[in-house]
Specification:
Shape: elongated
Order of helices and strands: HHHEHEH
Mean pLDDT: 83
Largest sheet: 2 strands, parallel
Structural class: mainly alpha
Distance between the termini: 12 Å
Radius of gyration: 15 Å
Strand order of the largest sheet: 1-2
Number of strands: 2
């Protein structure tokens, strides 16, 4: 069986508390790093209160520009269904 898996990435977990372990690094650095990784994404899931996050707004704009599908947290079940179909999840169970 040949199944391709699509991993997930959380920009927040990639840079949370960066101000502590890398205090001289600006938020722009983390935003740019996230966009480098986001270029390989097939979808994004926006978590609650994403509208208050400059990084999330930047990521959404980038995704829209590149044609990457986005799901709001209220569409979580749709996202999971899409992801399962995309990666062939049911084929391995």
């Amino acid at each position: 069986m040949n199944v391709t898996f699509t991993p997930f990435f959380s920009p927040h977990l990639n840079s949370c508390h960066g101000e502590i372990y890398a205090p001289d690094v600006t938020p722009d650095y983390w935003y740019k790093m996230d966009l480098v990784i986001l270029q390989f994404a097939t979808a994004i899931l926006l978590l609650p209160n994403w509208q208050k996050s400059e990084g999330s707004k930047l990521e959404l704009a980038y995704a829209e520009k590149r044609g990457i599908i986005s799901f709001d947290h209220n569409e979580f079940n749709d996202f999971v269904g899409w992801w399962h179909r995309k990666v062939g999840f049911d084929a391995i169970h």
